[in-house]
Design brief:
The complex is a heterotrimer of chains A (about 325), B (about 300) and C (about 350). Chain A is mainly alpha-helical. Chain A is built from 14 helices and no strands. Chain A has 2 domains: about 70 residues; about 240 residues, MetI-like fold (Orthogonal Bundle). The radius of gyration of chain A is 25 Å and the shape is globular. The longest helix of chain B is centred in the middle third of the chain and has 32 residues. Chain B is about 70% helix and about 0% strand. Chain B has about 300 residues and is an all-alpha fold. Chain C has a 6-stranded mixed beta sheet, with helices on both faces. Chain C has a 5-stranded antiparallel beta sheet with strand order 13-12-11-14-20. Classes of the chains: A mainly alpha (about 325), B mainly alpha (about 300), C alpha+beta (about 350). Chains in contact: A-B, A-C, B-C. Chains A and B meet through helix 1, helix 2, helix 4, helix 5 and helix 6 of A and helix 1, helix 2, helix 5, helix 6 and helix 7 of B. The complex binds adenosine-5'-triphosphate (ATP) and magnesium ion. Adenosine-5'-triphosphate binds next to helix 1 of chain C.
């Protein structure tokens, strides 16, 4: 197939043709609506407009959630019901290590990101070259997890002691006369190393959110505190931090969700070897290598349930925001 | 103005900007230097890996095998061979093409359907609109993994697997809750009188959408667009699963992930391919930073 | 260029009635002003006429056609909003052209009409600007222009001048009036400003709580208010009210206030003898001195140059007087005042309705 000709064709089709059709369909629907009396017209119009967006969401998100929950109680080929066996499997044996790793991700990734982002946001605020520093910190947010994994594979690269180190970190260790660390091989260290890649990739989001929150804290209040003789630590902990707590929560929940879903980094850098496996990667394995739909679904449901508290927090926040 | 200054400053290396302009840090001297030192450390840590990628992609094979990327600084010896190899042997051009063919339509469709949905949700009165809004907020955090088992089967059933429109469909549906969420606040802030005025001027609902809503929402649509493009371009999981069995070159992320596993081509071409893959999003974020920042801040569920 | 008839119109939001039984007949080319306290339903009524709100009950007609079920876009009504609602992404010319384009009017004709209206409103030099590049007064003009260029059947204005400064407001007021005279387009205009209402209207509709209290020409409204609410609402400073009885005196009938002040009555008040009434007199209808004047104690004098406003105490009641004369007397002193018997209003104390 001639890809060079196909790409423009697909782009024209998807970015011009389909939008045009969507618009046409709306026009058609409106034309039909205009034949109705005003009452029903008003009642039906929202549904005409929501038909396509909601339909897509229902197809891609809602329907699969329901089916997956059902499949998680079925056997490997999703043919017969087997009760909670998949869940028993998910919380036993080798899976416990995988879940342990996920818990490591769930705790360490959000906390490290938050702490580093807080430091960055507060300190960037104090220097004149803040825009430049900010730009550099958000650059990695543009990079795919895959590319980030490639980049950091090189940073973590390890040669046995004695030979010249090509990885940046081990080279630095060598300069200080320390032995090289097998960053991606040594258990626990490797999971931490993977987590740091995610921190590097995602911290820009956190810094942006926190920085904008910090700038919204009234300068007058802070100046008053300064005049009262409060030190910078004091100001941070008793003035700034309480005022940006909502944003801190946002950062935490965002990062928790990112940690739950993490797949690309593990898949590319270690493929779950050396005790780095996580749930999402395991799901990929169950789906493709083991072909066990029941196991895969149970894992997916566990992921979903872990995300539920965050969804709940979001909903509560949203409601208070919309209805002041 | 400050924006352009910011952009042009970035490609410079990570030194040479300390001491620019007036210093905002007050207080005692050593504390001041500590602040600068920590900020500098951040900047280094976040910039060096990208620099490393660029330099590695430009170094000759022999150099790469013998020494780390930093040796390119004292001993600059650059070549474009890695890039040629990447294009010739790694199908990078084809992969970039496939990625574009996925990301551009996805972006356009996400924007269009999000505006349509947000407009209906914010500007039309009907029972159930709060419920729908809440449902979308809840779906914001759905892990994509939950959808895989049924959708893979469905895609196989209807012949969508291995096709690019199948990926559009998935990515658009998955990104829509975010899109609607991001746009709804903005559209709600357009004064109601504007719509009423247009209606009295004789505009139909569709016309209002085209002539009032779309042009006025352009800034936030740009924000959504850049985020949607980044997600689509950077996505690995979905194309990895749903593009299997396609005769097209794999999207760039899938291609890269495969290349990491096999080391036959050596580090150089992989680095070149990786750099090419991050070039598009980096340029996008740098040139549209304002929109990108608005997208991130607007997309956070704030309290 | 059509008449508008509103018949037994009602509107409620949920169970809360906002418009209750409003009927108004507006003639072709008439300039009708809606006034009333905040929240009385003026905007709601206007928006119902425009088609922006649904009708709960009753009818709205343009000419002989009932338009309850005609969509706003098909009513051919132009509205000027308080916030102007200019399209921010269109130039002045594009703002005006929008409705014409939708009507399918050809380019040349559009340009001709825009140029003409631009000239009429002095917008010629601004046609290529965006709304954000205009001053408040200019924006107001553009909003007017956008309405005029359509040559609609009916103009609706919802407090169009309230965002302008006082001087500009006076200017625009006479300009709008002159324009309407020229174009002869049926106009319904909502305002809070009494002077605006009095000077511009052919007829004024006074509303309260979703009902029409009175609908009359400005001078009739001033001279013969139908009830105490209208009497108090129209005129500034507001009419003075005193409670008391009509009593027989040696020479005829007089008003005897509760605290024993005797005030003259117009001829024909004899029929009310023995009835409790509310005695209404506008501040400007007190005279100074003369036969039968009463001593009133001055509480405060506010000279404005052309007139003098005096806050007085008449028996137990506070009243306000407005005099063309300069008043030399000071606080605490008394002056002789005399109500003009021919300008007296008598109201029923229970219903508030006008008796004479
Ligand atoms: N959408 C709505 N839902 C419920 N009540 C409404 C709505 N719109 C208006 N109201 C109520 O209807 C009444 C009339 O409102 P309206 O805006 O017509 O008043 P108005 O006379 O124009 O006041 P103002 O002079 O302040 O503009 C008010 O009490 C208002 O609270
Ligand atoms: Mg109003």
């Amino acid at each position: 197939m001639d890809i060079t000709g196909l790409v423009p064709l697909l782009i024209v089709l998807g970015a011009i043709g389909i939008p045009f059709l969507v618009y046409l369909a709306l026009g058609l629907g409106e034309a039909v609506l205009s034949l109705c009396p005003p009452g029903p017209q008003r009642a039906m119009r929202p549904w005409l407009w929501l038909l396509l967006p909601l339909g897509l969401v229902a197809l891609i998100l809602i329907y699969p959630v329901i089916v997956t929950v059902a499949t998680s109680f079925q056997d490997a080929r999703a043919e017969s019901w087997i009760g909670a066996a998949n869940y028993r499997w998910a919380f036993s044996g080798a899976m416990l290590d995988v879940i342990g790793n996920n818990i490591l991700w769930l705790v360490i990734f959000p906390v490290v990101t938050l702490v580093l982002a807080l430091i960055a946001a507060v300190l960037f605020d104090k220097v004149s070259y803040e825009p430049l520093a900010m730009t550099i910190v958000i650059l990695p947010t543009a990079i795919s997890f895959t590319a980030g994994a490639v980049i950091w594979t090189q940073m973590y690269s390890f040669q046995p002691a004695g030979s010249p180190q090509l990885g940046t970190f081990n080279a630095v260790l060598q300069v200080f006369g320390l032995g090289p660390v097998p960053w991606l091989i040594q258990p626990v260290v490797n999971t931490l190393a993977l987590i740091f890649v995610a921190v590097w990739l995602q911290i820009g989001i956190a810094v942006l959110i926190l920085s904008s929150a910090i700038k919204n804290v009234g300068t007058e209040m802070i100046e008053a505190a300064r005049l009262d003789g409060a030190g910078e630590w004091r100001i941070f902990f008793s003035m700034i931090l309480p005022n940006i707590l909502p944003s801190v929560l946002v950062v935490l929940t965002t990062m928790i969700i990112a940690a739950l879903k993490v797949f690309d980094i593990v898949y590319v850098m270690t493929n779950g070897n050396f005790g780095t496996d996580v749930i999402a990667n395991r799901l990929y394995y169950e789906l493709f290598a083991a072909n066990n739909l029941g196991h895969a679904s149970a894992i997916a449901v566990i992921l979903l349930i872990s995300a539920l508290p965050v969804a709940l927090i979001n909903i509560i926040q949203f409601r208070t925001e919309v209805r002041p | 103005m400050s924006k352009t200054a910011r952009q042009s400053a970035v490609p410079l290396s990570s030194h040479g900007f300390i001491g620019l302009a007036a210093d905002r840090v007050r207080g005692r001297g050593h504390l001041r230097w500590l602040v600068h030192a920590v900020v500098l450390l951040f900047v280094l840590f976040w910039f060096v890996p990208i620099l490393a990628l660029l330099l590695s992609s430009l170094r000759p094979q022999a150099e790469t095998a013998a020494s780390g990327w930093w040796m390119a600084l004292p001993r600059p010896a650059f070549t474009a061979t890695n890039y040629m190899l990447a294009f010739d042997q790694l199908r990078v051009a084809g992969s970039l093409g496939t990625s574009l063919a996925i990301a551009i339509p996805t972006t356009v469709l996400v924007i269009l359907l999000s505006v349509i949905g947000a407009y209906a949700l914010v500007r039309m009165n009907f029972a159930g609109r709060t419920a729908i809004s809440l449902l979308l907020v809840a779906l914001l955090v759905t892990p994509p993994q939950i959808t895989l088992v049924p959708l893979l089967r469905l895609y196989n059933l209807v012949g969508l697997s291995g096709t690019i429109p199948g990926i559009w469909l998935y990515q658009v549906g998955f990104t829509l809750p975010f899109g609607v969420f991001l746009l709804r606040g903005f559209i709600a802030s357009i004064p109601q009188e504007l719509f009423e005025s247009a209606r009295l001027d004789g505009a139909s609902e569709l016309r209002i959408f085209r002539s009032i809503v779309l042009p006025l929402s352009r800034p936030i649509m740009a924000s959504l667009g850049i985020m949607a493009f980044l997600w689509s371009w950077n996505d690995l999981l979905i194309p990895l699963l749903f593009m299997g069995g396609s005769s097209l070159p794999p999207p760039i992320t899938v291609n890269l992930a495969g290349l990491v596993a096999q080391t036959t081509q050596g580090q150089g071409p992989l680095m070149a391919a990786t750099f090419l893959s991050v070039l598009v999003p980096l340029v996008l974020v740098l040139s549209l930073q304002r929109h990108f920042v608005r997208g991130i801040l607007g997309g956070a569920v704030k309290g | 260029m059509t008449s508008v008839a509103i018949r037994a119109l009602r509107k409620s939001y949920g169970t809360i009635p906002v418009i209750r039984d409003v009927s108004i007949d507006i003639e072709d080319g008439e300039f009708v002003v809606l006034v009333g306290p905040s929240g009385c339903g003026k905007s709601t009524l206007l928006r119902m006429i425009a088609g922006l709100e649904t009708v709960s009950d009753g009818e709205i007609c343009m000419g002989s056609r009932v338009i309850n079920d005609v969509a706003a876009k098909d009513r051919d009504i132009a509205m000027v909003f308080q916030s102007y609602a200019l399209y921010p992404h269109m130039t002045v010319a594009e703002n005006m052209a929008f409705s014409l384009r939708l009507k399918g009017i050809a380019r040349a004709e559009r340009d001709r009409r825009i140029a003409k209206v631009g000239e009429l409103l002095g917008l010629g030099a601004l046609l290529k600007r965006y709304p954000r590049q205009l001053s408040g007064g200019q924006r107001q003009r553009v909003a007017m222009g956008r309405a005029i260029v359509r040559d609609p059947q009916v103009f609706l204005f919802d407090e169009p001048l309230s965002n302008l400064d006082a001087k500009l407001r006076v200017e625009m007021r006479s300009e709008i009036k002159a324009l309407q005279h020229r174009l002869k387009i049926t106009t319904i205009y909502v305002t809070h400003d009494q002077i605006e209402a009095m000077t511009m209207a052919d007829r004024i509709v006074v509303m309260r709580d979703g009902r029409v209290e009175q609908c009359d020409t400005p001078l009739d409204l001033y001279d013969r208010p139908a009830n105490m609410f209208v009497a108090a609402f129209i005129g500034s400073p507001a009419m003075n009210f005193l409670h008391g009885m009509v009593e027989k005196r040696n020479s005829g009938c007089s008003f005897m206030s509760c605290d024993g002040i005797e005030l003259p009555l117009p001829p024909g008040a004899g029929q009310l003898e023995g009835r409790p009434v509310v005695y209404g007199i506008r501040p400007e209808h007190f005279g100074l001195g003369g036969a039968g004047s009463l001593q009133a104690r001055i509480r405060l004098v506010e000279p404005t140059g052309s007139e003098t406003m005096v806050f007085l105490r008449l028996g137990e009641t506070e009243v306000v007087g407005l005099f063309r004369e300069r008043i030399a007397a000071r606080e605490g002193e008394t002056i002789p005042i005399r109500p003009d018997p021919s300008r007296i209003h008598l109201f029923d104390p229970d219903s508030g309705r006008r008796l004479i």
